[in-house]
Amino acid sequence: MQSRKCTISAVVVACGLALLASWPIAAQQSGAPATVSAPAPDQLGWFARQWAAVAGLISSGPERGRAPVTGAPAGAPPPVVTISRPVVREIIEWDEYTGRFDAVDTIEVRARVAGFLNGVHFVDGQLVKKGDLLFSIDPRPFERVLDTAKAELEQSRTRVESTLKDVVRGRSLLDRRVISEKLLDDRENVKREAEAAVKVAEARVQTAELDLSFTKITAPLAGRISRSLQSAGNYVTGGGVGNQTLLTTIVTQDPIQFYFDVSENNTIKYKRLATSSGQTPGQPGAPIEIALPDDKGFPHAGKLDFTDNRLDATTGTLRLRAVIGNKSGLFQPGMFGRGRIAGSQPYAAILLPDDAIGTDQAAKFVVVVADDGTVSRKVVTLGPLSGGMRIVRTGLTAEDWVIIKGVQRARPGQKVNPKREPLQVSTAPVEAGAPTTK
């Protein structure tokens, strides 16, 4: 109000000075001589009338049409707020990660021999057992090769028998000095060559039998098979490295693996936890809880079985792997999931609802009320959510009374009328569901 009065006074003075400067011009317009001299009585009357009009306009104009401003009553009661003490609960902080499921074994089924496919003996996407027939290749060319190899083997054996008889006869003739020792040695060499030829023929028979067996392509392991990439009647190649025809793929189902990446800071944290407490979070053998995108909580349990030997220099992360049972076939290779591992030892944490926590440009804070009803503000350091409530790491004690409702009506240093109520905490477990998948 004082500043408003000063402003009006300044405007009035300015208008007066303007009128003083303009009175000769007014006199000139009235026909008076344009000389600077003491104002005549009629000029003074004109100046007085102009001054009165300006003063009346200034004094009445700003207030015209406005209701008088009145302050709040001096004896207004303090505002009513609801206060509660923080919840103290023993918890374990969990570190959550996003990862992808992958099969323990992935097999590419390829042809080992070349030929025309006779048939496909499975349904696309079905579960197969080890040894199940998947594809068959026309066996007739391989049967002919096997028959030829067997005939050559029989021929070699006959030659061995013939050379053996020559050696036996030669020894008797040598005893009677009918032939020379050189001739007997030659017959024995022919016999040894015939015996070696038998071994070569036997190996050819085995190779032909092996190639014939490759015309029936069976499942090398149990799992879920993909679609057939070749139809009956197509020619497939095989045998050489890099040119075998891919027929389909098989992935194992149970168990299944879960891959995820851990930041460098968390990797260091897990190392320190293992050193100080004997726990092994983030190390092979540590438990892990896993959830699919539509799961509530983390109902599937597994164990870590692999930690990479170095961090990725590009992303600054370490690759970890867990193994989870999958007898029901719920998990599929390639699925996304969320996993969590223990990131701390059990400890008593102070918890507050997020609604009771304020934010400004500098920090997070809560508004507390002293025993005499005086309001003050405390800066706090926050942690993750636990059971729907926020962990308060520093800045608050379990004995503080925090404003839960009516924060907007409280100002630091002001007194309020506090209404104490206990925080409503759910009796359900902190995380919905318990690990059940084995």
Characterise the protein shown here.
With 438 residues, the protein is of the alpha+beta class. It has five domains: 2-60, no CATH class; 80-88 and 347-420, conserved putative lor/sdh protein from methanococcus maripaludis s2 fold (Beta Barrel); 95-102 and 255-342, Elongation Factor Tu (Ef-tu), domain 3, CATH 2.40.30; 105-138 and 215-251, OB fold (Dihydrolipoamide Acetyltransferase, E2P), CATH 2.40.50; 140-213, Helix Hairpins (Orthogonal Bundle). 30% of the residues lie in helices and 29% in strands. The chain has five helices and 23 strands. A six-stranded antiparallel β-sheet has the order 2-17-21-20-19-18, with no helix packed on it. Strands 3-12-15-14-13-16 form a six-stranded antiparallel β-barrel. A hairpin with a 2-residue loop joins strand 20 and strand 21 (389-394). The longest helix is centred in the middle third of the chain and has 36 residues, at 140-175. The radius of gyration is 49 Å and the shape is rod-shaped. The two termini are 77 Å apart.
